[in-house]
Amino acid sequence: MSAVDHPAPRREIRERFGFLRRSYAMLIKEFIQLKRDRVSFAMIVMLPVMQLMLFGYAINTTPHHLPSAVLLQEDSDLARSILKALENTAYFRFLYQVHDVEDFDNLLKSGKVLFGVEIPRGFERAVRRGDRPALLVAADATDPVAASAAIGSLGMIVQTALKHDLYIGDPPEMPFEIRAHARYNPAASSSLNIVPGLVGTILTMTMLIFTALSVTREVERGTMESLLSMPIKPVEVMFGKIVPYVLVGFLQAFLIIGIGVGLFGVPVLGNLFLLALLSTLFITTNLSIGYTISTVVQNQLQAMQMSMMFFLPSILLSGFMFPFAGMPTWAQYVGECLPLTHYLRIVRAIMLKGASMQNLRFDTLALAALMLLAMTIAVTRFRRTLD
Hints:
Structural class: alpha/beta
Domain ABC transmembrane type-2: 156-385
Main location: membrane
Organism: Bradyrhizobium symbiodeficiens
Subcellular location: Cell membrane
Family: Belongs to the ABC-2 integral membrane protein family.
């Protein structure tokens, strides 16, 4: 009886060891494959490190030292005291001093400053006579998060500014009033900030992924070799791949803006043709970057991973989720190298401020430079893959 029962436990032991041996072999195989797939391994390491660095060092939800301008129509001791008191709040950093209302408005429209302080002519004399003149503080409220804290600090400057100029001790009443005017978004509606930003964010994500996957798919299926065996140049292949997605990008932008205007009441104050022209520039830039990604990776999974690697800093450092002016200097430099940063300024300025090309020259030139750089790298990399 015992002689018959012995083989069964032995078979179970052999099967158990066989299971462990085969599982171990598969484990080794996967590690070897992961080692060979260097792009995926780099993404595994870099993504958490990048998120930790960005959220730990670059993101600041309470921005300080915001770029500001002053329309100074009189140069007096009281005016200088008020400006110094504003700077001492740590929310304002005065970069421009203008004497013309048009220059003052252009600085706000172009996005070079977020705040403008107007000190009218005869201000100090009116204060000393007890006329309670008004001090105007204009805020670019297209980004309500950046503007709200700074506007809330304005009430503290009166005692600081006048302590040594007019009174000893606390003044009995405010000798002038501060009128804070939130321009372009007086109600501080988040939809007016988010909807235009979604145009650039969604275009960035879809254009990168569509192009990177489209070209990589051709390589994986072997159809790229047969395509290149035809009498066609690499630039022509790239052009033919990009143009259809430009039309797709137009469709997406039209849907987002149309829904934003119809459902959320987002205004379009600027020129729609200018918005379409600069959107084409932005879409082409992202498509060129996606094409470059496709020449670096080996398969569609790597293309998706690298696209996300580019998209993550774009959404965090462009000013879409967090105030751009609140980031440290190094993060702002990185953000200036991202197409989304410049396009967000463009689309918000055109839709909410009615900005013209004159107000958007810097961001347009920056976007054009990034497009030329991305396209040059894409064509160069594509030609190398053919050699």
